[in-house]
Amino acid sequence: MALMLNGAGVSRGVAIGPCLVIRRGELEVLEYAIPRELIDDEVARFESAIKKAQQQLSQVRQQIPVDTSPEISAFIDTHLLMIEDAALCRAPINLIRRQQCNAEWALKLQRDALVTVFDVMDDPYLKTRRDDVDHVVKRIQRILLSHQEQADDIVFQRARGCVVVVDELSPADMLLMYQRGVAGFITEDGAPNSHTAILARSLGVPAVVAVRNACRYVLQHEQLVVDSRYGAAIASPDERALGFYQRCIQHDKSRAVALKMIKGLPAVTQDGCGIHLMMNLELVEEIEFNKEMDADGVGLFRTEMLFMNRVVLPDEEEQYQVYAKLMRAFKGRPVTIRTLDIGADKQINVNPLNDYYGSNPALGLRAIRLSLKEPQLFLPQLRAILRASVLGELRMMIPMLSNMSEVQQLYRLIKMSKAVLKEKGQPYDATMKVGAMIEVPAAAIAASAFARQFDFLSLGTNDLIQYTLATDRMDAAVGHLYDPLHPAVLHLIQMTIAAGEKHNTPVSMCGEMAGDPAYTVLLLGMGLREFSMSASMLLEVKGIINDSDVSLLSRQVSTLLDLDSPDEIMAAVGALGKA
């Protein structure tokens, strides 16, 4: 009898194979006292475990083929850097000496302190970084507890052609499984924005995460289907379902071949409408790899990573060097740099800037609100961005604007920054474009006013949907209410696009909705002409655009926006493009 399990799909595609269940179990960490005369030995035991963990990860990295994209190696490099960070390699030693406790317990205490910081964050991407802390800590703990690593060759040699079902998976485990020819995987824990999930997307491995109690419900070796498009898994499918999914796999293979043929070609609809496809960038380390991707430029470069996990703020010169590197890498293509989007949910470890928690971080002192309150934080960034503007087509984007008083303060600070640079004789582009992120419902409703004040608008749908529906998509209890197709969300998007058209102000979208193929034709029909997304989704979205007819979609969408039933809207979106 078939059994369907549901979770969150993190990549596109279907996998079919026998089930390989890997049960790891929780690590039991006990506290016990260490005699003072043995403290140095305990510290040495901890340092030895750190060294062995580094060796294990280095071996995984060495096994990555040389022709693999640098993006893949970066996931292992992230864990290696975390092991070398003082927060993990030095802080537990201080705890061992101060509390005279065993190394396992000291590491647990430090892990709990680090995870607490990530748990209060509101940003979904940053919040899931706690998974990386857990993966690294568990690797070290297994060594300290002399547990045999579950992610070694003995276990994963059996993964070839299988769908692996496991409680959780680190990026290193994911890479080992991929190298062994795994068909797909299901995890009980995890989130769509975790590094493991991002890696699965990059490698094209069908995967579903957050399938609660999956290890209990499936049987070893039974046939399992993973449909990562819809976040579903089917155990013991019948012949009809199996045949359907086998045809899906063949279709996906044909589609992948066709998409390779359009790489390097422009995104143009069937009726000749040109579309700009941009990419989102998170980290400086991504620049070298992503500059070769099939994008018209950078639609969003997040700058908060430059400020986090450090005790001294980056000065103007350090920021300038990063922005300059970005501009040189994408020379000839527009680059959009978003100013600091940080606050109570994404903390800076510098007093007094780490004191703004508030009772509701998502609605508190963050993004442009914090930047305007703390000019010593904002002005160096403005000057660094202005200096980099002479190196190409740089566009500056301001997050979380909600009223015109913020706009007036912003332009005063920009004017001050230009005056300082002029006095120092440092060049800048006086015509650099400044744009507003529309991610607060108030800004979308007042989009016409923002369109008059800015050179471009960019829809940040992640927060726009969250704020409009009062729903935290990372909260499992209400995540089902997070709906990009809610009529209120669609009307706010339409109002913003219409305001841009009225005032001849370009409108782009840089939220996850822009990179989801399920919404591409809808957004085209609504009038969106610039999409910014993860580089891994560019070809998929381009393929849909090149097969679309904007004139037909525009007529169909005008009718769709009059609907108010979620089921009717979903059905209408599915029918878009069909005459």
Distance between the termini: 40 Å
Task: List low-pLDDT spans.
Answer: none
> Which structural class fits the helix and strand makeup?
alpha/beta
Mean pLDDT: 88
Specify Rg, calculated over alpha carbons: 25 Å
The largest sheet, given as strand count, sense and whether it forms a barrel, is:
9 strands, mixed
Q: Which word captures the global form? A: globular
CATH class of the largest domain: Alpha Beta
Number of domains: 3
Helix percent reads 40-55%
What is the architecture of the largest domain at the second tier of CATH? Alpha-Beta Barrel
Strand content: 5-15%
CATH level-4 homologous superfamily of the largest domain: Phosphoenolpyruvate-binding domains
Number of helices, counting only DSSP H or I runs of 4 residues or more: 25
Question: How many beta-strand segments?
Answer: 17
CATH fold topology of the largest domain = TIM Barrel
